[in-house]
Specification:
Radius of gyration: 17 Å
Number of helices: 9
Strand content: under 5%
Number of strands: 0
Distance between the termini: 54 Å
Length: 161
Amino acid sequence: MDDWLAEILGRAPSDAAPFHRALTHGSQAAENYERLEFLGDRVLGLIMAEWLWEQFPAEPEGQLSRRLNSLVTGAVCADVARDLGVREHLRLGKQARDDGASDSDNVLGDVMEALIGAWYREAGLEAARAFIRKSWGDRVHSQGKAPQHPKSALQEWAAAH
């Protein structure tokens, strides 16, 4: 796992324990990814908001919010986790393994955020920013127009009809 972490992060962490925790599901141990996920979610949101603000200087707040919301969803985080090879390093209990947790968007998305939280604690904001920008890559620009949240689209449709 240490070689894999060094590959995705750019260097091996000085303390691997938080990363082991970030990859540990609650079915495996009481010391699991949940607290790191909480932190990583906030770090991801901040860095993504900053990145979008830089990349789309002419867009108003509403469009930036829609872009942000579409890029930090559990499904997108899970896709990034799959691209990085997180599935092979998950630590799951037998029941979670049997239930297919290693391919769950919820689990993979949460673990991705936990890894961000662990890396932020280890290396700071600049390193977290570099990791997120590298990991999300072209996803920031692949949308073209700012997407509309499905709930907003439904509300607009209902109001019009």
